[in-house]
Amino acid sequence: MNIVENINTIKHSIPSKVTLVVVSKMQSNSNILSAYNSGHRIFGENKVQEIQKKYNELPSDIQWHMIGHLQTNKVKYIAPFISLIHSVDSTKLLKEINKRAKENNRIINCLLQVHIAKEKTKYGFQMNDIEEIIKNSKDYTNVKISGLMGMATFTDKTKQINKEFSQINTLFKKIYNSHITILSIGMSSDYKLAINHGSNMVRIGSAIFGKN
Ligand SMILES: *Cc1c(COP(=O)(O)O)cnc(C)c1O
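A: This is the predicted complex of the input protein with pyridoxal-5'-phosphate.
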């Protein structure tokens, strides 16, 4: 498994307007540094403790993205440095991010996670609630809602995945404006489908580092 080769292969296979988030959860610092030393700067993590530790140990020009479910009481640990939170799934969380961003004199970029999968376990807002939340978010002076994130059903049924990506893309196109520009859909198994449905940010782990 050659990490740098895998990253380069993926980068060459996606349009240049699509941002690659290298998902480095459970990866060692040395694996992350291999990617870093080849020029990559954007890494995604799904656990607060892990992202905090890596932030402290690794180069300071890494842009850290939080992609996993975020508990309200843990926002304060990542608020000083987080570059983008993909996984905002409640207004309570949005409010807390705003509060902690303010304390740190920052504006924190956020994506609203939309529930598109059939599984009940996946977090996220209902599609129908998104426009209302964006309208009401004007009060959050230190949060910038930059787009949407979604995770398709874990299945090999391409038709189902296409349907879910198509739904979130329709919503994205409806709300798209000068601030709302990011559609974060697509992982190792489905990023090509996601790009066909307007994804401009893909989150890829196992296709780079191998399966753990
Ligand atoms: C782990 C994870 C990914 C990456 O998944 P792979 O299948 O390893 O590419 C993407 N998004 C989220 C939210 C994840 O937790």
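The radius of gyration is 16 Å. The CA atoms of residues 47 and 68 lie 6 Å apart.
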